[in-house]
Amino acid sequence: MSEDRLSEVPGRGSEAIGLAEALPVATDEDGSPPEPPESHPPERPLPPVLATPSHEGWLAARRNRSRLWWRRASPNLRGTVYMITALLVYAVMVGAFKHLGTAIPLVETLMIRQIIMSAVVCIIAGRSLPLAFKTDRPGLQIFRGLITLASMLCGFSALLYIPLAQATAISFSQVLFVTVAAVLILKERVDAARWIATILGFLGVLIMLNPSTEGLNVWALMSVGGALFGAGITVSVRILGTSERTETILIYQGLVLMIVLAWPAFAFWIWPTPEQWFWLVLLSLFGTAGQWLITKAYQVGEAAALAPLDFSRLILAGFTGFVFFSEVPTATTLAGAAIVIGATLYTMRRNARGRPGSDLSSPP
Fold first, then answer.
1. How far apart are the C-alpha atoms of 30 and 14, rounded to whole Å?
2. Who's near 68: CB < 8 A, 6+ residues apart?
3. Where does the record place the EamA domain (predicted)?
4. Is residue 325 within 8 Å of residue 98, measured between CB atoms?
């Protein structure tokens, strides 16, 4: 501040001048006043460097956008993504199984599949594996393992000898069998409308069985047996789910299947070629991933919203059978499938809606 400016302040000019004179003045070593500092032009910010877009940067941006979309998605939308992915995975598994055909005995394929699936479950369980062996219902666990094996033997045998679309359409009758089992075993109440839908659904299955003067299609009957035993699996899981861990159910299933299949697999063993090993490992891993994805789907989404998506399996099966195995669905298969799908959709809608005072608030 200059002396003129200081003197303009009333009563403060002389004090400021005296103070300035009292302060020491900095000098160089020879007593001369220091030279004024060199003036530098103000530094200008450098222009931003335009980074060349890289493939890694684009992928990172896409991943971030996908994570943000996933966090904002509703539970049913996320469950739908899990469900559709599971159905695609299962389509690959079924195609690989159909591709192997009868070159590898069925018991050997199921044994290899179960060993790989059990190994994956043990790896996922990790340190909690000892807890997974604890069960309060060992008898029911063994029974579930046996009916799981029966369902696999029937269902996979049918896949080898009848078109994929027909086998898949018949498998939808599992929901109808669950309705009957819910009444007989779980003592649930079923109204007249659901009984009518169940009866119509079974008529659709009978149409797909294509009865003729020579009798019913044996392999189609095997597919019905797979659906029947599959309903038993559903009911047993519903009972076990109240007290057992998911890992416990899967581990005991693996133990039962491997013990029962050990001798038949050894007796009929045919050493797979490298290509066959590839397909065996592929169908095993995809089968495990499919089970995990479907479980995850029903954990995050509502069953009533996700269950109808299961019917897209029929489209995938028909496409796979037509493109890779030259299978064309017959008119009876399409007609029967339409009846079964309609009856099943109605049943699931009634299950989801429920009624006050009834036991139908959730699907079986």
1. 32
2. none
3. 78-209, 219-347
4. yes
Q: Which two tokens stand for residue 342?
A: 């309609």
**How many Cβ atoms from other residues are within 10 Å of residue 264's Cβ?**
15
Rg of the chain, C-alpha, whole Å = 36
- Can you read off the two tokens belonging to residue 44? 């200008």
* Residues 346, 322: Cα–Cα separation, whole Å: 29
Contact 27, 34 (CB under 8 A): yes
Contact between residue 340 and residue 201 where contact means Cβ atoms under 8 Å apart: yes
Residues facing residue 212 across a β-bridge: 215
215 strand-pairing partners: 212
Residue 193 in tokens: 């409308």
H helices present in the chain, as ranges? 3-7, 13-22, 55-72, 75-100, 106-125, 129-132, 138-161, 164-171, 174-184, 192-209, 218-240, 246-267, 274-300, 303-306, 312-325, 331-353
Q: Which two tokens stand for residue 319?
A: 């496409």
Q: Are 200 and 192 in contact (CB under 8 A)?
A: no
Residue burial 204-218, b: 16+ Cβ < 10 Å; e: rest: bbebbbeeeeeeebe
> Can you tell me the distance from the alpha carbon of 337 to that of 165, in angstroms, rounded to the nearest whole number?
9
Q: Please report the pLDDT score of residue 14 as a whole number.
A: 45
Question: What mean pLDDT do residues 328-355 have?
Answer: 75
Pick 48 or 3 by higher pLDDT: 48
pLDDT digits (tens, 9 = 90+) for 255-264: 999 999 999 9
- CB of 335 within 8 A of CB of 171? no
Confidence of residue 108 (pLDDT cuts 50, 70, 90): very high
Tokens of 229: 């035993």
Among 115, 83, 105, residue whose Cα is nearest residue 284: 115
Calpha distance 230→265 (Å, rounded) = 23
In whole angstroms, give the CA distance from residue 218 to residue 228: 15
Mean pLDDT along residues 329-333: 83
